Amino acid sequence: MIKFKIFFDIEKEEQWLNHMLSEGWVCANVISGGFYTFKKTDNLERVIRIDFQQDLKKEERTNYKQLYEDFGWQSLKEKSYDGSYYWLKRKDGNDELFSDNDSQIAKYKRLMKHSSNWAIIFFIWLMMFYSNDNFYPFNIKDAYFTPGLWDKEGFSFAFSFLFETPLAIMRFIVPWLFFITFSMYVIMYFRYRQSIQQYTE
Amino acid sequence: MKKHKLLPLSETMHYILLALREPLHGYAMMQKIEDMSAGSVRIAAGTMYGAIENLLKYHWIVPVETQDTRRKVYQTTAEGLAILAAEQQRLQRILSLYEGADRHDKV
Question: Which residues in chain B have Cβ-Cβ distances shorter than 8 Å to A99?
Fold first, then answer.
């Protein structure tokens, strides 16, 4: 079974995967872009945890994976392009990836830094493409700038349309990407604050 | 002097530096620490990985060459041992206070 779901919050994603597992669907593979494949299972005594590591080089990744596998975790994703790693393990009472607060806080810090980097990139991109009188994140037609494009017909239309489509998609998608990455940053910031508070109380 | 980011040593860091006075890989470290702490400290995978990265950064531990090509093995450096010695002094002073010694006494 393939499911599509977008998460802003990595903790919510983890909860959802464990909820699916409790209903007899174990995640078999995490495909990028919000797609997950699930397999039917009777073995419910398992747990899924999501880790985040930024920019692991090939050798570091091998080393990282070997260590987690030694601890009994099985990887659900062969390669990670965005730094997230999904781990599955039999429940045995030691079912967390982190055993002290410092390392739990450090995970949120890595996520915060990652999402803020992307938010800044998309913000700069946004500033480059946008002026005050054109705001087109809701209607992709508005993202086409060719004058009279929608009145053209036949070959003339097809040519102009195809020519501008990549640009229009870029214009259309950037505010959304900024919105998504910025929201992720805000959520991770609150998770980070929360984890520090737990630590000091 | 500015306080080092990892000082005073957390329980995790303390146990890892102590365990790595002999060369070990991550999982063996966790097992040894569980033993050393009489079962009270069980370091999880993510915490172990992060701690190793952190200690490597400050050169308190180093990777050592072994026959095991799959797993990296680490050992505490002279710098790491010096940190342990300083921590031992700090903790001994605290212990002596527990035992009722005057705070002006030499440890």
Answer: 12, 41-44, 47
pTM of the model: 0.85
CA dihedral B15, B19, B20, B21 (to 10 degrees): 120
Most distant CA atoms of chain B, gap in Å? 53
Minimal CA–CA distance to A83: which of A52, A37, A43, A125? A52
Judge whether A95 lies within some domain: no
Which CA distances in Å does A162 have to A119, A148, B84? Answer: 29, 15, 67
**Last residue of some domain: A34, A60, A90?**
A90
Contact A99 B42 (CB under 8 A): yes
Mean pLDDT by runs of 10 across the 201 residues of chain A is 91 96 95 90 96 90 95 89 92 94 93 92 82 64 74 81 82 85 91 82 59
> Position of tokens 């605290």?
B94
Nearest CA in chain A to B31: A71
Kindly state whether residues A126 and A184 are assigned to the same domain: yes
Interface test with B, best of A61, A63, A91 (most B CBs within 10 A): A63
Retrieve residue A158's tokens.
């097809």
ipTM of the modeled complex: 0.89
* Same domain assignment for residues A76 and A142: no
* Predicted pLDDT at A52: 95
Query: How close is the nearest chain A Cα to the Cα of B77, in Å?
Result: 21
Asked if A103 lies within 8 A of B72 by C-beta distance, the reply is no
- pLDDT band at residue B101 under the 50/70/90 scheme: low
Does residue A152 sit within a domain?
yes
Alpha-helical (H) ranges within chain B are: 11-19, 26-36, 45-57, 78-98
Strand partners, B25: B73
Place of tokens 């005073």: B8
| Domain annotation covers residue B99 | no
